[in-house]
Specification:
The chain is α/β, with parallel strands linked by helices and 211 residues long. The chain has one domain: Rossmann fold (3-Layer(aba) Sandwich), CATH 3.40.50. 54% of the residues lie in helices and 12% in strands. It is built from eight helices and five strands, in the order αβααβααβαββαα. It has a five-stranded mixed sheet, with helices on both faces. The longest helix is centred in the C-terminal third of the chain and has 32 residues. The radius of gyration is 18 Å and the shape is globular.
Length: 211
């Protein structure tokens, strides 16, 4: 077992540490999940969020500006609920629900993870595959980009992700001085369109199943 784990570690180190070069990047501040999971007043989280917005390199987007992500995460969680359970769980959506919702709506293909997060990534990919089947289309699974440190996220409230380049019109709308705000608007529209498409597919599937 130790030898197998050693081989697996070498494979991970050699294949997953290179960051995608030909993709656009986004740093998503996961403030909504943080507040949902910790039951902390916003005033306690606000200073950390402010620091992240000032120090993060690249395009920083607040998850609170993309409410469709929370909506889909809750829908994914609701699909696993046992209607005969005597009480509701403390948290409906788990980490895999949130990750799958972000990947599906934002259209990202790579995410930065630690070794300890690979199991969550695998669960998220299973949920992405189920969403793809619901929409009768192939969904690319998320590819991991392993953090160099390997074990602890440098910023627990930041998800670094990469995806296919947006259309030229979207890219030309971004200016260096206000890239984060403009990217939030672009991604909000993308989330709206993708969630609407998913809901239409689910509605059509329910009607076909009832007929």
């Amino acid at each position: 077992m130790e030898e197998w784990m050693g081989d697996r570690q070498v494979a991970i180190d050699s294949t997953l540490t290179e960051r995608p070069q030909a993709l656009w990047s986004v740093a998503l501040v996961t403030d909504v999940q943080a507040l949902s999971a910790a039951y902390r007043p916003y005033a306690q989280v606000a200073p950390q969020i402010a620091r992240l917005r000032q120090t993060e390199a690249g395009h920083v987007v607040m998850e609170s500006a993309l409410p469709e992500i929370r909506c889909l995460a809750m829908l994914l969680a609701a699909g696993r609920l046992d209607e005969h359970c005597p009480r509701s769980p403390n948290h409906f959506a788990d980490d895999a629900d949130w990750l799958a919702a972000r990947a599906f709506l934002l259209g990202v293909t790579h995410v930065e993870v630690t070794l300890g997060q690979l199991a969550v990534l695998e669960q998220a990919n299973q949920r992405l595959l189920r969403l793809g089947r619901r929409m009768s289309q192939d969904r690319c699974v998320l590819q991991p980009v392993l953090r160099a440190s390997g074990s602890v996220p440098s910023q627990p409230m930041v998800l670094r992700a990469w995806g296919a380049l947006p259309p030229a019109g979207e890219l030309s709308a971004l200016s260096a001085s206000d890239a984060g705000t403009q990217l939030s608007r672009i991604l909000r529209q993308r989330c709206r369109v993708r969630l609407a498409g998913l809901m239409a597919a689910l509605s059509a599937g329910n009607k076909n199943g009832a007929s």
